[in-house]
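thought: fold this chain, then report.
action: predict
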Amino acid sequence: MNYSREAQDLDFAYKVRHALNESAERLPAPTLDRLANARKIAMSRKKQSSPSAVLAFGGVLAGAHGFSFGGPNSWLGKLGVALPMLVLIVGLMGIYEYEQQRRISDLADIDVAVLADELPPDAYLDTGFSAYLNKAEE
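observation:
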């Protein structure tokens, strides 16, 4: 809902309230008495609001497990949030480096196999040779 729509709705509500107030002032006294009595009866029959149970977890973040290290503004409290983030970043960097090294190793194995083969490397670039290899495999 954008601002202009909300402003229009609010303006409409004010106009309706104003019209109702004007027409309520013109009602005869017996009608106003009956409305007042009806309101009192309705209010007496209204359900009493019962307190609802709410489950609240205060301060349950990384590093705050229900006990305090001196509050959220202490250096120990900040460390309790920053340390897991630092461990996560270092772990992701380690995984990235491991995958890069594995990829380099796999490419090196392919290069060694191509260079150690009896065929010259240009044979692998020939499309006819590739078709011949595919046909020979079948």
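thought: worth noting. The chain has a mean pLDDT of 79.
final: tokens above.
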